[in-house]
## 1
Amino acid sequence: ESDYYVWGELSDWYCNNQNKMTYNPTYRAYTASLYLKQGFYNYMIMSSPKNNPSSFNLDEMEGNFSESNNSYNIFVYYRKPGYNYDSLIGYSKVDINL
């Protein structure tokens, strides 16, 4: 069993509790919530075995084949000035098959 982290420049290249993902049984998926400024971020999902927390692995989640197929779910939210909630204004699923 492993722990999973959102890893990249947005996490200052560290794996810690701030960017650790947790399993959500409702979605049957690992999720994370991070505060980010508007912009473009490159990131990867890093795994670390629970029995060896100082060892990290990109291949388990990211794969190591350049011909891998990838699916991305893109959610776009908007918050009106003065409101205390976000509205989902766009969604797209993108499949990249090389």
Note: The chain has a mean pLDDT of 86.
## 2
Amino acid sequence: IEMGDRDILKYVWDGKIPLCITLSEDDSLSIGTSEKFYVMIPRMSYLPLLYDKVRKHFQKFLSKDFQNEEIWMEFNGLPLKWHYPVGLLYDLLGESILPWNITAHVSKFPEKEIFHCPNKDTLENNVMSSIKEADTLKHRASVINSLLKQDYNQLWSGFLNDRFEQFWSVNRRLMETSSEEMYFKHIPIRIYNFNKPGYLQPLVRPVDDNDHVLTFGDLLNKVIMKSVPDTGPELIKCLIHGVQPPHDTPLQWMSEHLSFVDNFLHITILQQ
């Protein structure tokens, strides 16, 4: 079945991951394991948007000392970066196992490894800051500076409430080009390596100096392979939304259709 551009946007939007969340034994009043919390979360979403539900589910297992402490999540001993989209975290760490088993904590916050996220406003500020950075790369911030407060509210509310049409009625303006400018200035992109901390954020243009359209294969050869110098292309797997993009996919098209809510392409490099 041939998918149209709008179908692809909706397909990416609808992608979900099943989570199985267990309360850390350090924080639980019960002997042994408290009951697990199962939930489907959009790949585009962020862990802090689950915190209220997680707290409510495990409330009866928490001692009074921990009732109001900040929640943080961990997988195999590694604190999960809440400012990374869930789909990115899963592609990077989940090892293709479903449901993804992660652990919730309400004590011993790992100050040196992750930032605090005391409320949803912190998450909103973080995502909006990334959207502004992305538009600076794409349009020299001309679109984001033209948005009104109500546009921001509509964008964020559409995302929070899983309203595709509402979100895209604003987000499409951030993804548009004009007759004078057929391409973005640069492609907002971050590349994550399975065995390196942080990410690479190369300055990538959608076309070369001769206006030749650049593809994912060009990005792979010119940028990604240089970040894993001792590895051949056949030994790595590059994922976005859990899928390996074909090498002939134009970067401009990828940016318009496969970006996350923060308007960045988040690409994971894994060892085969």
Note: The first strand starts at residue 16 and ends at 23.
## 3
Amino acid sequence: MQPQTFLIAIRMCQSVKEVPSQVTIPSRDLGHRILPCHAIDRAWRLGQTIAVGKEDARCPYGEIALGFYPATKAFRDGWITGYLNTKEAAAKIAEIMPRLEY
């Protein structure tokens, strides 16, 4: 049996100094920020090792889910709709979205 995708793991680092030099850091190696979900997809589908820090992420949902920033009242109340059509939908996602501690 051959899986069609790579297995992935997430390692939380305190500093960029903990990241091995061969790991892709989007702001440094790609010249732009990246959506955390795209970084996970690249690891999953392409087998790339990518380090995403505060300075690399560009999605409020991903930044909060990864614990880079706290979930503000505005976020919890649905004011950051992003990809959603209504404030109510955004508030529901904010309520049920798993996230790491800030």
Note: The chain has two domains: 1-58, 70-97.
